[in-house]
Amino acid sequence: MIPATTIKLAHNEVIKDANPTLAGTLAQTLANPEIDRFSEDDSQFLKFHGIYQQDDRDKRKVAKHYMFMIRTRLPGGVIPSEQYIALDDIASKYANNTLRITSRQGFQFHGIVKSGLGKTMRAINDALITTLAACGDVNRNVMAPSTPATSCLVERVLQDARKLSTALLPLTPAYHQIWVEGQELNLEDEKVKDFVDPLYGKTYLPRKFKVAFAIPPLNDVDVFTNCLGFVAIGEGDRLDGYNLVAGGGLGMSHGNAETFPRIADVIGFFTPEHIEAVSKAVLTVHRDFGDRTNRKHARLKYVLEDRGVEWFRAEVEKRVGIKFEAARPHKFTKQGDLFGWHRQFDGKDFLGLYVETGRIKDTETHKLKSALRKIADQFHAELRLTPSQNLILANIDPANRDAITKILADHGVAVENQGSLLRRTSMACPALPTCGLALAESERVLPDILGRIEGLLDEVGLMENEIVIRMTGCPNGCARPYMAEIGFVGKAPNKYQIYLGGNEASTRLNRLYKEGVKNEEIVNELRPLLSRFVQERDGAERFGDFCARVLWAEQPPAPAATN
Ligand code: SRM
Ligand code: SF4
Predict the structure, then answer these.
(1) Which of 208, 292, 301, 359 does the annotation list as catalytic?
(2) Which ligand gives the minimal distance to the CA of 102?
């Protein structure tokens, strides 16, 4: 580790070092009804507990209205109906009556006021769901393929995802004490006084850490954008092992060339019994070699970028005590979700539902939240959240299919033709009014932008084409815009960068095409490109591939991940 005496550590490092339990003064502030927010340092500790302190940015001109976002940890996005019912109640009672499916298969509650924070956390834990380490400098929610029909390996891989989710959890007693027991930590207690997390150490990781599992040919989890990825290699329901990929990440800052999106490198193959040791080795390489002086350079991707793949492989092998085999051949061909009714391998049915920008809510004409509640109450369907912010009702008895379709239809939710191809593959991050880092709108404007692009596609004769479009309100990349065929990235109020050239398998970064485009100019910017695509398209070529082939002709394309 970097000796603190010679190098100026980031402030977060200093406060973690002084508070290895991550308790700060959270319990005291929580218990004080006079205070509507936590201190700056405590708001950093809150993140490790799955909570973000935010303020309603629509109201900022008047005053700062503090509120909280809570993020759940749901490995592989799987939720039994009993837990969903509890979460649905929490959304109505304490949050803004919506549940937001995240791009990492979790749920977020928005708009919780401080007086409801403790009760919300207790209710989540009572439902046997945790928010511990959903945020913070630790391993986040572990992603895994959620579509039951895509491969016999789904359930097997899900077991490994759950195992790692538990194995990589921090062990601080503070979470249980504050949010479940509702008490301050007793700092005089011997165990608390000397607490050091056995895996993370005193100062945890230099930055967040992300893990995903993928089963080729489907790259629904966007595996190459994770710090640590496992590509399942097997046949039928036999899992031979995993290709380890490492060093992906998308966050960057405008105007800072030292920050950039990076796709993960393929490191090698190993057999399943080593999964926990390999994960801990990669995580501790990040812990020991990540930059603790500059949080903008602190992700694992910069360790790989700066020290190289060979160094990284040797370091991980040393820590695990094995040699990786050469990566086994694998090929990703697509991303995304299946929609409508499908049969599972075990004879049960599942229903893929498109959820606009991942927000489960009721509107005048589309009452998805009420419909899901009714289905969960009556049919005990398991819910699975997808990495594209959509939803699957899984393990349905085929005899209940028509009744579920009817409940949805009665609430204005279609199971056939659920929105255009464009909408079903799109994603937007929350941005305004909740995200403190947003430079521009995203979730609130994408549906309208998509409507205008649909009009354009109709005009140029491309309505039957799928084009993956993703939007974020800033360059942090929360809806993974740098992997999209068209990415819109917020630069300033109402101004966006346009990125072009991602591919269907999500193995290639796109490239910046245009700066500072106003929302209302987006369609005019895209019109000549889409018209040219119609003229010069090579057979069934996709728009992203056309952009990479034609628009990038002058400059060589960025290297794709080994596919
Ligand atoms: Fe994210 C920060 C929302 C997935 C990269 N992200 C944030 C915060 C917490 C803003 C903040 O720090 O104050 C956002 C909360 C907004 C709100 O009001 O809810 C936020 N991120 C989200 C979610 C909800 C977006 C969504 O549309 O679903 C996703 C929650 C996932 C989860 O359940 O854990 C989410 N964030 C991602 C992803 C995509 C992924 O992980 O697959 C990325 C890019 C991949 C990566 O990590 O590189 C991502 N979020 C960031 C970053 C940039 C990190 C970096 O390396 O620079 C930040 C800013 C930061 O950490 O300082 C950030
Ligand atoms: Fe906020 Fe930026 Fe993430 Fe969007 S991409 S949620 S604006 S941090």
Answers:
(1) 208
(2) 1
